[in-house]
């Protein structure tokens, strides 16, 4: 891929389980509790594959996201920076999951998406 965008992303199933309002989702996904399925939790956590990423990534996240806390995107952003992957992080202070609260922010997201892909494709 020439470019990617990650909005309200999950990067680490361990922190998603422990910090999210939707922690039961992880239990359903792995069919058990995290400490019972350690290998699967590690295998399915995207951050464990960060060393393979070369595609430039734009992260977009709302600071008030309780479904997928912003720390999820921050972790992957930090990991990709360690591997010198081109990456940008845009946070929206008053937004929750999906950046859907304020029309001005929705418009800003669309403009950033277009600019990101125009600059990479």
Question: Which parts are unreliable, with pLDDT below 50 for 5 consecutive residues or more?
Answer: none
What is the H-and-E element order?
Answer: EHHHEHEH
Computed over alpha carbons, the radius of gyration is: 15 Å
Query: Can you name the CATH architecture?
Result: 3-Layer(aba) Sandwich
Q: For the report, how would you describe the main beta sheet?
A: 3 strands, parallel
Within the largest sheet, what's the order of strands?
1-2-3
Please give the number of β-strands. 3
Query: Which structural class do the helices and strands define?
Result: alpha/beta
Helix count equals 5
Distance between the termini: 9 Å
The CATH superfamily is Alpha/Beta hydrolase fold, catalytic domain
Number of spatially distinct domains: 1
Shape: flat
Strand content: 5-15%
Mean pLDDT: 95
Helical fraction equals: 40-55%
What does this protein structure show overall?
By secondary structure, the protein is α/β, with parallel strands linked by helices. It contains 5 helices and 3 strands. The chain has helices at about 15-20, 25-30, 40-45, 70-80, 105-120; strands at about 5, 55-60, 85-90. The protein has a 3-stranded parallel sheet with strand order 1-2-3, sandwiched between helices. Strand 2, helix 4 and strand 3 (about 85-90) form a beta-alpha-beta unit. The longest helix is centred in the last third of the chain and has 18 residues, at about 105-120. The chain starts with a strand and ends with a helix.
